[in-house]
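At this stage, I put together one protein's amino acid sequence and its backbone structure tokens, which the following lines show:
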Amino acid sequence: MEDLRDLALSIVDGVRAGSSALVTGPSGTGKSSLLRTVQDRLDAAGVAAHALRADAWAPDHDEADDATAVLLVDDLESAPEDLLSRLSAHTEHGGRVVAMFETGRHPRAYSTRALRTVYGSHPLGHDATTVHRTHLTPLDDETMARFLHAHAGEEPLDSHTLRAITTLALGRRAWAMDLLSLARAEQIQADPFPSINPLLAPGDAPLPALQSLRASLATVSPECAAAAVALSGIEPLDELGLGALVDPAIVETLTVAGVLVPTGGSQQLEVPAFVAIALRQRSSFDQVERCRREIATGLLGQELVGVPLSERDTLYCVRALAPDEVLDADLSEALRRLVVRAVTRLTTFGEAAQVRAAVLRLAAHRLELPPLARARALAALGNANEAVRVVDAITDDDPDVRLATRFARSVLLAETAEAPMPGGTDDVRDQDAATELVLQWWSRTEPLGDATPLVRAVAAQHPDPGVAALAALLVDLDAVWAGLVPPHTSTLHAPNPLPAATMPTSPVLSDVTGTILVAQALVLLLIGEASARREPLLELAARLPDRDHHERWLRHVVASSTAATFGEMGRGLREWQLFAGSVPRLVPARLRHYVERVGAALDAVSDPTREPDDLERLSSEYPYRILLYFAGLHGPLQALRTGLEPKAGALPLIRLARAHLDATHERNPAQLTRIAGIFREYDMWLPSAYAFGDARRIYVGRRAVGKAQACDAELASVRDEIHRNAPWLSADSAVSDLPETLTPRELEAARLAARGLRNRDIAEVLECGVRTVESHLAQARAKLGAGSREDLARLLPPDEDD
């Protein structure tokens, strides 16, 4: 909370100069924490201060009568009339007030009157010159991520949990701290949508922000509380839309109380999940469930008129209602469609236990899954042979259904160990044969070899965009796995947009599009660009029916890539394992093979003291070699016979890494600085730091002080970028900013020089030659980055004898 500490210092300085202070902001933005910090600072400065909670103040409290003390008032918006009068008298007699005022919980007229009563003129106006005015705003997502990483402690947050807390906190610092505690207690659910355990008990964990929020909402009626809890589970709506689902008078009450809040700077309103948990005990379970059923029935009307519900609202309706409970025949039929749709999505991504529970619910309501979804469910439950029979029975002639069916059959056959050897045609004009060829290669794990030209031709000529994309990515993955530039995916030298136009978006092709997206992400990861292309990847995912599920595993891929490229292999491995567990159910054997091998490479590099069982195989694979480079294990990498060869068509990342290792071996610092600059242009900050660091060591050995200092400046810039791009990573853990250690003789000579002794005098003290003294001082200046004896005096570590 560095910004709040700075604000506290500013407020204290103003108070000591005779000013009062007012801090406004919505719930959870850190006002109470700020007030405690102000009190600590005032106490340390010897300034008398009394802390008051406006909502707990009673007329017999006499703190407000001390005219010499600074009054620190929390929750001023809840102050009774008596307290407002006392505070007004305090300021009229020259007293100072530091107050925290929560916005959005009271009518504007009351807020203005309360503030004018305390501060004389409206403290938000230009005439209140003696009031230090500050408005706390919620943090943006990037700043919130940094805040959470800074407070996560020893156990790092994975990307999905980080996203869940960021979403639930709505930029509020205090809420985020409580949510962090809840996440550690496994009370946060990240999938399919961020939520908090609704059965959370008041004493489950020390949650000061939640307790404060509960107290501030104590006047909300049970009826309004039940509606708020029920509304927290749906997508945001404007006031008119909310009024169609619950009593408009309740909507108005919740808006005035600050329970319904604007979202995304729009006119749409939502009940934050954190607020709903605070209100949960103010209503009964039956009241909440009744409200949920009413809201779900209202949402079904949207589905009935042909406007599909979002996945979140679909799940809401499915959980709140049962088809047999809905008396209206049309609404009951709409709900049946929603149930089938929800379970169909679950078969694409869900685990076996989830799929089984969903299938049992379908059976209870005598509902059936579409054939492809039924095949996925059977495969998830371990019956791939029966799944193949279900797929073989599909006879639909729709082109999308045919491709989806053939794709599923190919994947399922591989799971039964019956995948046919690729063969077939040399004529790519035979569309069916070309499609079969591509699908068969996806179901196997060996390199394409001589089949590469034929598959490339399919990618260029096949009229079906799904088949063409599968063929192109098959070739690209085969190339990058060998460390070569992929022909269909742009690299660092040519950052073209990702091919969004070739991505099929039909729901029936969800397995195909899932494979295309996973393959595209894997290609970008292997060429070192998954982090840089994060936004285009998410844009591709946003075009697909199951966007929320795809965004989940994409976040893990990007987080793993970022961690690995900053040398944090343990974190990279954890994120990769989470990714591997969240990819779509039906992805081909080749893709699963690549995912498994990248995981094996991360596992091996994350613990270099342990020799992996398949070291020989790993050493021949590009991911292991490049991860050794990113981990800074350049000695083992040099020792590998297969190394990072600069062969024709090699990836830019390989060529740069090889050039770096060669320049280090040849002790060529000028070449190293050039390579470091290229890495920096490509936003590869850790390799840039490695190269600058190697160049600096060589310059220090040559006593080239000026050039060593130039490298220090470059390393400082790189450290700043590392901290900006990886807030969870201490920059010092990647690039040490400590000067190189001086030898005892260098240190002794440098201390004598810093005291003003001449070289000849130092030689006499050390009983050595003047040339030896000159050598010691040159090494010391180079290692410390000192340009003069004055710099030496400033940069030397303290002398314990002084």
Q: What stands out?
A: The longest helix spans residues 329-349. Strands lie at 20-25, 49-53, 70-74, 96-102, 131-135, 188-189, 195-196, 261-262, 269-270.
